[in-house]
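ok, trying the design again with the full structure, not the truncated one.
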């Protein structure tokens, strides 16, 4: 039996915090009603919001320099699902888990699916991995995978992606995310057009293997591990390829995969306008692909992304349902705490964007009143919606204060007992 936080303990902890929450909630209700906003509508929207967890994010992450594992690290995909279950139990906003193969490979898909279902979880898009050589692999990806010059290497990479689709299908997933590190470190090392032609040839084979109700997400990234030219380096290349491949191919925006100061919210608006915005890997960064906690460095950017998503949803209605996923690496915090806080920060940006007075905004825009248009957005961003987020958790049986409750439960200590450290194990994925 693995330790689970007792729902009774959650109820007891919430009882202590509920009175304060109720008064904060009523105070916010007053502020919002003066703006013509109904707090109950916003709370229902918050309850309906969801962002998927990265299975590879519940183990301690690291860099190329070092990784400092914590206690009670997940040892396999079942431990990872266990921790994802606890994050959803307390936040009620993360019912989906995005798996990564071969890191999460299992021979018993049924048992894994049942374990997830018992924890109220389902599987979101799965991720292939042709940026590392797996044990026993016939051909190396040192010089690329889907773009490799050697047709046997490309065939191996295509076969791996089709294998991910089959395993994902058995787990109830409906999407495949393809991020490749393929590229060059020297000018002249590879023919840039040739590489992309080989990429499209490989992706057509993967696309042909997609079940009818599946999507494939193309994830662009400016650099790393390639440091001169990356084959799928930006949204333009991703968009061109997704358009070339067909309606089941969409673009995935990882917030950390752009040059510093890139206007990511405008990329979101563009991809949404042309019906190719498939999903997100939310995180934050200061310099490169830092994979820091969402909203921890630039929460205004996260808000502006959701402001564009609000605009797109207003235009495209139900047809517009991008996949929301976190993709982070937790090197110095307890991954469970970071993922809980990050999921709530993404939910916060979503609710703040719903607070935008769209009538006033378009009025100021139509009158070229730049200052008042900017202030209209800022008013929504400056609104502290914490009471709405906490009430949404409370009404869904979660924790009013997830991190405080998690620490009070001593969950990590219980896992330290259950999961004796395995020296040198880095099965969780990142480094
Ligand atoms: C690449 C990336 C990709 C994942 C990997 C874990 O940087 O963002 O989404 O496969 O991180
Ligand atoms: Mn990513």
């Amino acid at each position: 039996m693995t330790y689970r936080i007792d729902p009774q303990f959650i109820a007891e902890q919430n009882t202590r915090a509920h009175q304060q929450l109720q008064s904060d909630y009523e105070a916010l209700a007053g502020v919002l009603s003066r703006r013509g906003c109904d707090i109950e509508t916003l709370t229902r929207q918050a309850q309906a919001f969801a962002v998927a967890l990265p299975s590879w994010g519940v183990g301690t992450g690291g860099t190329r320099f070092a990784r400092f594992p914590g206690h009670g690290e997940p040892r396999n995909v079942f431990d990872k699902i266990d921790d994802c279950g606890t994050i959803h139990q307390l936040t009620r906003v993360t019912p989906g888990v995005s798996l990564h193969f071969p890191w999460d490979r299992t021979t018993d898909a049924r048992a894994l699916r049942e374990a997830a279902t018992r924890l109220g979880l389902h599987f979101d898009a799965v991720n292939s991995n042709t940026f590392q050589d797996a044990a026993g692999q016939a051909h190396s990806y040192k010089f690329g995978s889907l773009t490799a010059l050697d047709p046997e290497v490309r065939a191996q990479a295509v076969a791996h992606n089709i294998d991910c689709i089959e395993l994902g299908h058995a787990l109830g997933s409906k999407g495949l995310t393809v991020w490749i590190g393929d590229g060059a470190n020297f000018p002249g090392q590879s023919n840039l057009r040739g590489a992309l032609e080989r990429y499209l040839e490989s992706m057509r084979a993967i696309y042909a293997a997609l079940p009818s109700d599946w999507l494939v997400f193309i994830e662009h990234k400016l650099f790393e591990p390639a440091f001169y030219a990356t084959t799928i380096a930006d949204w333009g290349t991703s968009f061109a390829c997704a358009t070339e491949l067909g309606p089941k191919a969409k673009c995935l925006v990882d917030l950390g995969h752009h040059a510093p100061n890139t206007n990511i919210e405008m990329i979101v608006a563009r991809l949404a306008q042309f019906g190719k915005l498939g999903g997100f890997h939310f995180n934050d960064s200061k310099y490169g692909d830092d994979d820091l906690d969402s909203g921890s460095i630039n929460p205004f950017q996260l808000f502006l992304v959701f402001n564009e998503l609000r605009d797109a949803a207003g235009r495209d209605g139900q047809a517009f349902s991008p996949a929301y996923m976190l993709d982070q690496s937790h090197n110095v915090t307890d991954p469970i705490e970071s993922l809980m806080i990050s999921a709530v920060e993404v939910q916060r940006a979503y609710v703040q964007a719903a607070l935008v007075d769209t009538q006033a905004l378009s009025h100021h825009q139509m009158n070229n009143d730049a200052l008042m248009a900017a202030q209209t957005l800022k008013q929504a961003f400056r609104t502290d919606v914490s009471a709405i987020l906490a009430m949404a958790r409370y009404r869904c049986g979660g924790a009013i204060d997830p991190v405080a409750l998690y620490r009070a439960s001593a969950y990590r200590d219980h896992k330290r007992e259950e999961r004796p450290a395995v020296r040198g194990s880095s099965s969780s994925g990142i480094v």
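Keeping the full-length input from now on. Residues 56, 127, 179, 219, 221, 254, 281, 289, 327 surround 6-deoxy-beta-L-fructofuranose (ligand 1) (CB under 6 Å).
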